[in-house]
Specification:
Strand order of the largest sheet: 2-3-6-5
Strand content: 15-25%
Number of strands: 13
Structural class: alpha+beta
Helix content: 25-40%
Shape: globular
Distance between the termini: 58 Å
Length: about 325
C-alpha cells in the first residue's frame, strides 16, 4: 500500500488563539453545560480567516515529539496552537462565542477543551517515552514501567506509570494514573508466548502499538485517490485533523524505528535520515541553519568589539580562526 499521508495539509490562523470561558453547543439540547475553557481563534465558524498552510508530516518530521513535550498548561497549549494550529478532528467542538456589543444573537465558533488538550499531550508523551526507551535500550526506565508478576493463574505483564510530580506541577492539578494490563497467561496465552520471561521491550512495544491504534481509530481513514501527475490511483492514509496526523507520525516512527534529534537552533525535533542528508545534521531546516549562522556571526562581531582575539572568538562560537577572520574582514568592508 502506497502512503501519501505526507500530502496532508493543515492550517494555522494568523490571528492567533485565545482561551474563552464558554459552553459547547449541541443541536437540540436546551440545558446549558457548565462553562469551561476552550481554545479558539474567537471567530465565527463561517467567518473568513487569514491563515497559513503547511504539511505537518513533511515540514516538521518530529512534530509528534514536539507535541509530546508541550507543557500541559494554558500558556504551553496556546503557544503550540499558535505555531501549528488547533488539533482538529474529534477534539474540535462548536462553541458559543461571547456576544459582542450590539450583537442580537450568540455566534457559534470552533473551540477545543483544555482537558482534551491536556489528555492528548499526556497520552502522546507516555507513548513516546515508552517507545523511545525501547529504541535507546533504556532498561532502567523500562523496568519502572513494564512489570512482570506471578499470580495463581500464571505470569502476567503490566504497564504502569508511577506518579509524575513534574507533570502535575506543569498542569497545576493531579493527573490520572496511567496503567494497563498487557497480557496474562490465563487470558492471553498466545500473547505471552511472544515474550521470554522478564522481557521488557516486547511488552512495551505491544502496549505502544495498542495505544497508537486506539488513537488512530476514526482519526485516520484509508482512501482511494488519484495522483494528478501520473493519473495513477493509490490507497493512502488521510488524517482528519492534526491530532490524527501526530499519531500517524508516531506510528511511522515506531514502524520504521526512526531516529530523531533536536534542532540546534529552534530545539524542535526532526527525523535523522542518513540516506537523505548528513548523519550529523544539526538543524531541522535551511531557515534554522541560516539563523544559527547569522547569530554566530553577530556574536563574533560583538566579541571582537569587546576586545577578544580571533582564537578566543572562534572557541566561543564553535568555529575556526579562518572563518572568524573572514567574518570580521567582510564586516569591515560593509558600509
Amino acid at each position: 500500500m502506497q502512503d501519501h499521508s505526507a500530502d496532508f495539509t493543515w492550517f494555522v490562523c494568523l490571528e492567533g488563539h485565545r482561551w474563552i470561558e464558554t459552553t459547547a453547543f449541541e443541536l437540540g439540547r436546551r440545558a446549558r453545560q457548565p462553562s469551561q475553557p476552550f481554545l479558539s481563534d474567537g471567530l465565527p465558524a463561517r467567518a473568513l480567516r487569514d491563515f497559513r498552510s503547511y504539511r505537518p508530516l513533511v515540514d516538521h518530521t518530529g512534530l509528534f515529539r514536539t507535541f509530546a513535550e508541550t507543557p500541559p498548561t494554558a500558556e504551553g497549549i496556546q503557544s503550540f496552537a499558535d505555531r501549528f494550529g488547533l488539533l482538529g478532528g474529534d477534539v474540535t467542538e462548536r462553541i458559543r462565542l461571547p456576544r459582542q456589543r450590539g450583537q442580537k444573537s450568540t455566534s457559534l465558533g470552533l473551540g477545543e477543551r483544555s482537558d482534551l488538550w491536556t489528555n492528548a499531550i499526556l497520552e502522546m508523551r507516555r507513548a513516546v517515552e515508552l517507545w523511545w526507551a525501547v529504541h535507546e535500550l533504556d532498561t532502567e526506565s523500562l523496568q519502572q514501567w513494564i512489570i512482570w508478576r506471578r499470580g495463581p493463574d500464571g505470569s502476567g505483564v503490566l504497564y504502569r506509570r508511577p506518579a509524575e510530580p513534574d507533570l502535575e506541577a506543569f498542569a497545576g492539578k493531579a493527573l490520572p494514573p496511567s496503567g494497563a494490563k498487557i497480557a496474562t497467561q490465563s487470558h492471553d496465552p498466545e500473547v505471552m508466548e511472544r515474550f521470554a520471561p522478564g522481557d521488557l521491550a516486547g511488552p512495551a512495544l505491544l502496549h505502544v502499538e495498542r495505544v497508537i491504534n486506539r488513537h488512530l481509530t476514526n482519526r485516520v481513514q484509508a482512501r482511494l485517490q488519484q495522483d494528478p501527475n501520473t493519473a495513477r490511483r493509490y490507497t493512502g492514509f488521510a488524517p482528519d485533523g492534526l491530532i490524527g496526523a501526530l499519531w500517524l507520525q508516531l506510528a511511522h516512527a515506531v514502524e520504521h524505528d526512526k531516529n530523531f534529534r533536536r534542532c540546534a537552533e529552534c530545539t524542535n525535533w526532526f527525523e535523522v535520515r542518513p540516506s537523505v542528508g548528513r548523519a550529523d545534521k544539526e538543524f531541522c531546516s535551511n531557515a534554522c541553519r541560516t539563523r544559527a549562522y547569522r547569530r554566530r556571526q553577530a556574536e563574533a562581531l560583538k566579541l571582537h568589539a569587546e576586545g577578544l582575539d580571533v582564537e578566543a572568538i572562534a572557541r566561543h562560537v564553535s568555529s575556526d580562526a579562518t572563518t572568524v577572520t573572514g567574518w570580521l574582514r567582510r564586516a569591515r568592508r560593509t558600509p
